[in-house]
Design goal:
single chain; alpha+beta; Cytochrome p450; two-stranded antiparallel ribbon; 14 helices; 7 strands; globular; binds protoporphyrin IX containing FE
Length: 352
């Protein structure tokens, strides 16, 4: 998400949790990505109490049991793509492995397997799907098309379910549909892609961590939490001290940054925060946020990552970095990857 520079950033773990709950002082009533869209992403950019109406209508599609129903498909997607990646000539991890995996899994969850190829063609970021210059054209063309289709569609896919949602006694409008479908497509893509790519990158640099997990698969869930903390795939989101709806003039210094990343490296909560400790005993990271806007897709991300890690463990592959162009975060987070602009891995041993 592209966000205007905040005049203040909340960094400390306890203070951030407090602020994320205090939606009166720190409002989400703001328009993000103003360069590429002119509507709210829902429920992300709406405050309680209205936020709650959307959130509770969407929640049933994202609860743990709803996602767990797709585990066998996630597993077969992971095994096939991991095997294919390491058995082929070296290639880029994101287009060859992590992006297709995330999109195939999303196709299963949303019951839209027919869209997977199109979603992959957009690349990891929907706003730069067509060129380096940010634009909403590709996403909006797709959303216009599926809205028409969803209205007349009786099949049980996510878009027809959403197009027929009733909020506060009224069927949702096309703009609301855009706001919901847009965030469901954009929110769960580059974040999960970064998580899965970061896992592969870490094991290439520290194969002993993968070896240890192979000997103790009980540690998989803890390991996922530590990858989520260390990588913090969504590092910061803004709030506004002056809700934007219905106002003509707004102070330019109204934005306050909620730094999930700073909180995840708060030394008063996490010992040696810059070390990736896959056995970290207590890990109250804020990678999925906190409070009413806590990530709706957290079970998707956690379950996908778990199944992916199981597939890596079972594959018996070990790998190293063949080439990389990793952009790291600015100081003090210079050890944490921000963007994998290029990453090629190569298998060094196959113990099968
Ligand atoms: C590793 C993967 C992910 C990370 C790190 C992540 C992170 C976050 C964070 C930090 C927030 C809170 C934003 C705020 O407070 O302003 C959030 C909200 C949200 N996320 Fe995720 N997310 C991930 C995956 C997903 C997936 C897979 C989906 C769905 C397909 C998703 C959909 C959403 C939605 C709809 C919201 C808004 C919730 C609300 O406002 O009530 N996310 N995410």
């Amino acid at each position: 998400m592209s966000q205007p520079k905040a005049s203040k950033i909340i960094k400390e773990h306890a203070e951030l949790r407090k602020a994320l709950r205090d939606t009166d002082t720190y409002s989400s009533d703001l328009q993000g990505d103003a360069d590429v869209r002119d509507y709210r992403q829902i429920p992300l950019e709406i405050d309680p109490p209205r936020h709650h109406l959307y959130r509770s209508a969407l929640a049933p599609y994202f609860v743990k049991p709803a996602i767990e129903r797709h585990i066998s498909e996630f597993r077969s997607n992971s095994i096939t793509l991991v095997d294919r990646y390491f058995n082929s000539d070296p290639s880029e991890v994101i287009p060859s492995l992590s992006l297709p995996l995330v999109m195939q899994n999303l196709g299963a969850i949303y019951n839209r397997p027919q869209d997977v190829k199109e979603w992959i063609s957009w690349g990891p970021d929907v706003w730069t799907a067509e060129s380096e210059v940010r634009s909403g054209d590709v996403l909006h063309r797709y959303l216009d098309r599926i809205y028409e289709e969803a209205l007349s569609n009786t099949s049980k896919d996510i878009w027809s379910e959403i197009a027929h949602l009733v909020i506060d006694g009224k069927k949702i409008t096309e703009v609301e549909f855009r706001g919901i479908a847009g965030v469901l497509l954009a929110g769960g893509r580059d974040t999960v892609v970064k998580l899965l790519t970061g896992i592969l990158w870490h094991f290439a640099r520290k194969p002993e961590d993968l070896k240890e997990l192979r000997g103790n698969t009980q540690g998989i869930s803890e390991a996922i939490q530590e990858f989520l903390r260390f990588l913090t795939p969504l590092p910061l989101m803004n709030r506004t001290t002056v809700p934007e709806s219905g106002r003509d003039s707004l102070p330019p210094d109204r934005y306050v940054g909620m730094s999930f990343m700073s909180a995840n490296f708060d030394e008063s909560v996490f010992e040696n925060p810059f070390s990736v400790d896959l056995k970290r005993p207590r890990n109250p990271h804020l990678s999925f946020g906190f409070g009413p806007h806590t990530c709706l897709g957290n079970h998707i991300a956690e379950i996908e990552a778990k199944v992916f890690l199981e597939a890596l463990i079972q594959s018996q592959f070990t790998w190293q970095i063949r080439s990389e162009d990793t952009k790291f975060h600015d100081s003090p987070f210079g050890l944490v990857p921000d963007q994998f602009r290029s990453l090629q891995l190569v298998a060094i041993a196959n113990a099968r």
